[in-house]
Amino acid sequence: MPRPRQRPLALLLAAVTLxxxxxxxxxxxxxxxxxxxxxxxxxxxxxxxxxxxxxxxPRQSVVKLDDPDHLEAGYTRAVPVAFVFNPRPRSMLVVGLxxxxxxxxxxxxxxxxxxxxxxxxxxxxEVAKSHFGFRxxxxxxxxxxxxxxxxxxxxxxxxxxxxxxxxxxxxxYALATREFLRSVRRITTAQGVVIGNVWRRDENPLYDSMxxxxxxxxxxxxxxxxxxxxxxxxxxxxxxxxxxxEEILRRAxxxxxxxxxxxxxxxxxxRGFRAPGADGATGRVLTDADAxx
Length: 293
Known about the structure:
2 domains, globular, Rossmann fold, four-stranded antiparallel beta sheet, alpha/beta, 12 strands
């Protein structure tokens, strides 16, 4: 697949810089309009570089350029849980780039892992490079493409797939339906892992329906609750693992040590890893036919 055509960096630097902060305590570095978003980049007094799509909206990405191993968002610290279920991944797909926090971090942890990142908005890719330290190389590639179309057309298969695409407020409906998740399953390897980042129930009216749809498509589904976060991770497998909880925790401890993670994956799982339980019970399977008009 061809690389997206990049606009000159000078065009980025010519973007409007606001006099007022995006939020109190933050210094605005960039406001840049694209065909899909208005991208706001700010920085706070602690050196957190932040991407938003509205001036006071949710943070799409947070990095600390002087501390590249820092993971600010709670769910980003939990994403390596995927490697508990697939400990020797060779390939990964990330749908939704933002500032590139997760692929950049995982690229440092696992330099031999081939990571493809798909982002709808080519300007987001430009801003990730100009303001968030995102860099492509032979193992880390970014494509400007519609995430659903990329998945549906892909001839590659991936050991790990992270669905992390958010609009201004939520996951696009087209990236939550049974038809889309079936396409995701098609390009997941037999022992692969799919991770969906979703807002929790009290922030997301479709939460139970999203979980119900994962349950409809995949053999095994787990939930990871993240302490203090508004979102949860859905772990979906096209296979049935024969792993007792203690073995899962043992692998998580070993992974924390081998990847030299600052966060203790075993502690994350002890607090928040569970079967869906009642999650999804009151939901409906989301389909393309029922998409909002």
